[in-house]
Amino acid sequence: MNRPERNDPLDALLREQNQYVEDNGFTQRVISALPRRHSQFPLSQIFLLVVTAIGSALAISQLPLESLPALNLSTLLSLNSYVLLPWVLVFSVVTSLVWATVTVAVQWEE
Amino acid sequence: MSFTDADLIARVLSREDQNAFGELVRRHQSPVRAFLARMTRGDAHLADDLAQETFLKAWQKLQTFRGDAKFSTWLFGIAINEFRSMARQKKELALEDVEEPPLEEPAAACDSHLRMDLTEALKLLNSNERAAVVLCCQNGLSHEEAAQVLDCPLGTVKTNVLRGKEKLRRRLTLAYENYESA
After folding, report:
1. Most trustworthy range by pLDDT among A51-55, B19-23, B96-100
2. CA proximity to B156, closest of B131, B123, B120
3. Are the beta carbons of A27 and B172 separated by less than 8 Å?
């Protein structure tokens, strides 16, 4: 690794000439000219939303919606898997759909 | 609390934070603009246009900065590429050797003008020598870093630094001798 010689008068003169350039609005000009960086939104986020929607639609179509057991406090507390399992499934599907929608919306806002 | 360049770059990449990028520009504008002013032989307007393009390119390509070199070194690399592409378009700034002026040319030589002489002498170097001298001797880059910036072999950088400094010495010695004999 070669650095300028410390005792070379020419190097000293060159270093001395390397003076600070005042900003004078340069940074502001650069910032106001910044283009929007290429967003990851259009492909990946739309893909996420579409896949989640398709998955949710498939899951919902397979749910025994007509024969869902009634849900009340006593059945919840009983922890009966025959009653709770279909509801857990419904809850998972709805949650994933809401999560995907919110994620996409937040990304869009940013 | 002051953020490191790496912190600011991370903020730009994760949040597209223009304030963080502004801080990076503020920190590095001086060496980049000074370097480009040297490369354009003192054309401050052209140098600032190239510097602006340099930072806009940096904004767009920031995700390609791997962090294995200093951020300033990476910026110098973009800056020299901007200069080279402009030089290709403008024949008058093409990367060929500039003829040295005749030795009998009167030189405004006195100690207080030594700086001005150096500025003028730097303009006499070809752009490869000038870039190597300015990067290594003024900005303190190692020969290896300069080779990375200029995208050329290490030996070429060393040769250009030696040749450039030799030309500067000759020019400054001549100016000093003219002053002494006057």
Report:
1. B19-23
2. B131
3. no
Instruction: Give A48 to chain B, closest Cα distance, Å.
Output: 19
Q: Do B118 and B182 share a structural domain?
A: yes
- Note the pLDDT tens digit of each residue in B124-167: 899 999 999 999 999 999 999 999 999 999 999 999 999 999 99
Q: Which residue of A16, A26, A38 is in closest CB contact with B48?
A: A26
Distance separating the N- and C-terminal Cα atoms of chain A = 45
What is the residue range of B41's domain?
A: 1-94
**A105: containing domain:** 81-110
d(CA A33, CA A49): 33
**Local structure of residue B151 (DSSP, 8 states):** T
- Among the candidates B60, B75, B94, a domain finishes at B94
In a domain, residue A110? The reply is yes
Q: What CATH number did the domain enclosing B142 receive?
A: 1.10.10.10
Contact B151, B128 (CB under 8 A): no
A27-44 per-position pLDDT tens digit: 999 999 988 765 555 677
The whole-number pLDDT of residue B116 equals 65
Asked if B52 contacts A30 with a C-beta cutoff of 8 angstroms, the reply is yes
- Give me the interface pTM, i.e. the ipTM: 0.79
**Using CA atoms, how far apart are residues A103 and A3, in angstroms rounded to an integer?**
51
List of chain A residues with pLDDT < 50:
1
> How many structural domains comprise chain B?
2
